[in-house]
Amino acid sequence: MAGEHEQGSVSDATVDALGKLSAALESVEQARGHLYGFHQLCGKADLELGEAVEALRAAGHDAIAAEIETDLVGRNVLDGRWSFQIVEEYDDTYWSAFRAHEQAARDQLAGGRRHLFEAGMKDDRRTHGRAHHEPDPPTR
């Protein structure tokens, strides 16, 4: 498990538990990234829809263009929300709380150190004394 170099006085069980908490946070971060992708695609689609409306008008299809423009351009993607508001609500209600709890657990149990489980894996898997297998980045 974690080498004494990184782990210090933190027990293997605590390192394992914090590793699971970190993995859960990484999933939350990925979910947030997908929300940002969703947000960007929704915005792109709305702009492209505006261009399609203009093209329909230019092609002489004013009634269809007007119906799409009135009903769909600028429409909420969820009740009362554009996609940016979904991201904001996720950030405010879940993501920020998740990060705060993960940080508090690390602060209380490991002196704030991150990725103790991975640091232990690195120490176990690297070839000690070999170039490009150093335990830490070079100091500058």
Description of the molecule:
- This protein has 140 residues and is an all-alpha fold.
- The chain has one domain.
- The chain has five helices and no strands.
- The N terminus is likely disordered.
Strand proportion, as a percent range, falls in under 5%
**Could you tell me the number of beta strands?**
0
Helix content: over 70%
Task: Provide the succession of SSEs.
Answer: HHHHH
Number of domains: 1
Mean pLDDT: 94
**CA gyration radius, whole angstroms:** 25 Å
Q: What does the overall shape look like?
A: elongated
Task: Quickly count the helices.
Answer: 5
How far do the termini sit from each other? 29 Å
Residue stretches low in confidence (pLDDT < 50, at least 5 long) are 1-5
| Main β-sheet description | none
